[in-house]
Amino acid sequence: MLNPSASARCALLLALFLSPQGLAAQDLETGRAAYLAGDYRVAVSVLEPLARAGDPSARIILGDAYALGNGVEQDFQRALSLYSSAEQQGMADASYKLATLLAEGRPGIPTDTAQAIVHLEEAVSQDHPAALNARAMMLAQGIGGAQEPQLAVAMLRRAHDLGSVEATANLADMLLRGEGVPRDTAAALVLLRQASARGSGRATGLLGELYDTGIEVQQDSVAAFALYTLAAQQGDSASGWRLFEILVDPTGPRHDPGRALAWCLWAHSRTTGNGEPTRAGALVPASAILAGESDGLPAECTEAAALLTPDAYTSARTLSLRLTQ
Q1: What is the distance between the alpha carbons of residues 168 and 279, in angstroms, rounded to a whole number?
Q2: What ranges in the chain are assigned the alpha helix state H?
Q3: Cβ atoms of residues 195 and 175 within 8 Å
Q4: 154 Cβ partners below 8 Å, 6+ apart?
Q5: pLDDT digit string (tens) for 63-113?
Q6: For strand 296-298 and strand 283-285, is the pairing parallel, antiparallel, or unpaired?
C-alpha cells in the first residue's frame, strides 16, 4: 500500500499528465514522431490545432510540412508565416529556417539577402549550429557584405564544437585552402575523416579530392573514384559532377559516355531548382543533339549525349534516376 506522500506524488503526476499542458505536450510528441516516420497526414492533423493554439515547436514542424509539401499542398507563404510566428516566440530554429527561405527565395518569396542575414544573426545569437555554419559561409564568400574569412573560421569552429557536421566539412575546406586561417592539410584531413564517418557527403567528396591529387595522402585514383561515388550517395552534387568529368574524359581509363551522362543529369537535378544553369554553359534543347527529344539538357551533358544512340540516351536518363537509390 502506498504511503500518503507517495500517493500524493502519483496524484500530482496524474494531474499534470491529464492537464491541458500535459496533453498538448503528448500531442506534440505524437505529431513529431509521425512526421519523422513519414506519416505526414497524421502529423499535420495533430500539429495544426497545436500550432493554432500557439505551440512554437508545432509551428516549426508544420512550417516544414508546408515548405516541403509533406502531407499538405506546398505553400511557402504559409511556411513563412509559421516560421515567423515561432521566431517571435524565441525559437532559434525558426529564425534559421526563415533565413533559408529568404536567402534562397521561393515562388512568391523573392530572395532577400539582407533580411536573411537579420534572421541568421538572431539564430546565431542563440548558438544555433546550422545558422552559425550558414552565416560563416556567407562571410567567407562575401555574400551580403565584405568577405571576412577569419570571422567565418571562428564561427565554423564554434558550430563544429556544437556538433554541426556541415561546419566540420566547411572548416576542413577552409584549412585546405588557407582561408582565414593558416593552411593545415593534416588538420583538414582529420576533420574530413570525422565528418565523412558521420555521413557528410561534402566531407567525403573533399576526401576524394585529396586522394585524387595526392595531398596529405598517397595519390590513389581508385580510392578517389570510390569516395566520389560514396559522396554522391550521401547527396553531394559536387561529387556527381566530378564523376561525370572522370567518365566523360575520352582519354581516361573509365571513359563511359552513358554513365557520364547519367551522373551529369543526376548532379544537375540536385544543383538547380528552376532550370537555370549551375555551371558553365547554358541549357540547350536535347533535340539539338538527339532527334525526337524536346526536353532541356544541361550544356555540360551534351558532350556525353552526343556520343550516344537514342536508345542509349534513354537508358542513361533512366539510370540517372537510380544512381543513388
Answers
A1: 25
A2: 4-18, 20-36, 40-52, 56-68, 76-88, 92-104, 113-124, 129-141, 149-161, 165-177, 185-197, 201-213, 221-233, 237-248, 257-269, 302-305, 310-320
A3: no
A4: none
A5: 999 999 999 999 999 999 999 999 999 999 999 999 999 999 999 999 999
A6: antiparallel
Asked if residue 236 lies in contact with residue 297, where contact means CB atoms within 8 angstroms, the answer is: no
What does the block give as the cell for 181?
586561417
Q: What is the pTM of this model?
A: 0.81
- CA–CA separation, 243 vs 252, rounded Å? 12
Question: Counting beta carbons within 10 angstroms of the beta carbon of residue 2, is it exposed (0 to 12), middle (13 to 18) or buried (19 or more)?
Answer: exposed
Phi/psi at 49 (5° precision): -65, -35
How many Cβ atoms from other residues are within 10 Å of residue 264's Cβ? 29
Kindly state the greatest CA–CA separation across the chain: 86
Q: Which of 30, 86, 36 is nearest to 63 (CA)?
A: 86
Provide the grid cell at 175: 584549412
Instruction: Report whether 80 contacts 109 (CB < 8 A).
Output: yes
